[in-house]
Amino acid sequence: MSLLISPGANILASIKAKTDNLPADPASQELTASADQAAGIKGQTDKLAGAVPVTGSATQNWQTAEADVVTIGVDATRNKLHDLSLNISNLAGTVVTVRLYKKINDVERKVYEQSFNATSDPPGLPIINGTWATHDLIRVTLQSNNAADNGKAVDYDCLLEAM
Amino acid sequence: MPGEFYIEGKQAKVDLSQIIANLAGLSAKVDTLQTQVDKLEGLPPGTDSVVADWQIAEADVISIGAINMRYKLHSLLLSIHNLTGTVITVRLYMRVKGVERKVYEQAFNAAMDPPGLWVVNGTVGIHEALRVTLQSNEVADNGQAVDYDFILEAM
Predict the structure, then answer these.
(1) Do B26 and B65 belong to one domain?
(2) Which ipTM value was assigned to this complex?
């Protein structure tokens, strides 16, 4: 498209006539659309790095009653749980029972139960040692058969990846 | 010269068509990339319940996935909280080389095992429908509801 203007013509009218025929900046539109998509893609791929690991400890009267260690995930949010380990090195019970609870069809159910012996099993328990997707909360509880375990700390460590 | 624009180097015409064409090509690739990346979010979870006469015969709970569609199944839970059978058998069936075969069978005791059964607790890739069935040895379980919950991710 030429911007050459004939001598003697109304310059402003000529410029307007020329610029009115310019395309509506398709290059800019394409770039804006691509930038928006790139931002969306980055938001999704950033999740692959995983969430900040959750590690802490819980102190409960483990022998008095089954008690919560930690609750993992968020209600109505999809996550992949790649690892959940517990540390029972402070406990002495010969029957230390770990249970997991999760909603199925909106009602929380016990979905896992396993007993360990703090005097003979390894202190670190790899409760979830693969990848398990959840779209809800996973509640982790522990119970011991030894009164000496009351008031002791149980450590936990888990790694989530948002979907 | 009065009355004329002077344009450096006589570049009176700037042709953007090649740039626009390249951007359009790039945009198409980004579309494809976004489609694939969006799948990482997973599909809306499948959760519901099904009622069948579980003792009369093995019956379907749910069929997951579809023929010739690639998915990652990240979790499958069943809830047998309404059942009382001492032998609750869960089976999975899937096509192997075009013919449906039983690929998993495990028996649980509703009186002893947790009500939630963690049937698939890892990730399994499927490209056929995965049929989940259940059977009970207890007549009282007929007409009872079994709940299920699963998460799929399209590949």
Answers:
(1) no
(2) 0.74
Which residues 42-71 in chain A show a CB within 8 A of chain B?
44-45, 47-48
Same domain flag for B89 and B24: no
Residues A91-141 pLDDT 10s: 999 999 999 999 999 999 999 999 999 999 999 999 998 899 999 999 999
Can you give the CATH number for the domain in which B74 is found? 2.60.120.1330
Contact B55, B143 (CB under 8 A): no
pLDDT tens per residue, range B63-119: 999 999 999 999 999 999 999 999 999 999 999 888 999 999 999 999 999 999 999
H/E stretch holding B72: strand B71-79
- The verdict on B50 and B101 lying in the same domain is yes
A33 inside 8 A of chain B by CB: yes
Q: First-to-last CA distance in chain A?
A: 49
Q: What is the pTM of this model?
A: 0.78
Same domain, A18 and A72: no
- Count of structural domains, chain A: 2
Helix (H, G, I), strand (E, B) or coil at B35: helix
Q: Do A3 and B5 touch (CB under 8 A)?
A: yes
How many CB atoms within 10 Å of residue B88? Answer: 25
Token reading at A79: 């996550």
Q: Which of B111, B116, B115 is nearest to B140 (CA)?
A: B111
Task: Answer yes or no: is A2 within a domain.
Answer: no
Within 53-92 of B, beta carbons closer than 8 Å to A belong to 74-75, 77-79, 81
Looking at the structure, tell me whether residues A75 and A141 fall in a common domain. yes
Q: Give me the CATH number covering residue A91.
A: 2.60.120
Chain-centre distance for alpha carbon A73? 7
Rg (alpha carbons) of chain B, rounded to whole number? 28
Report yes or no: A113 and A98 within 8 Å, Cβ to Cβ.
yes
Domain extent, residue A140, equals 51-162
CB A146 within 8 A of CB A90: no
B1, part of any domain = no
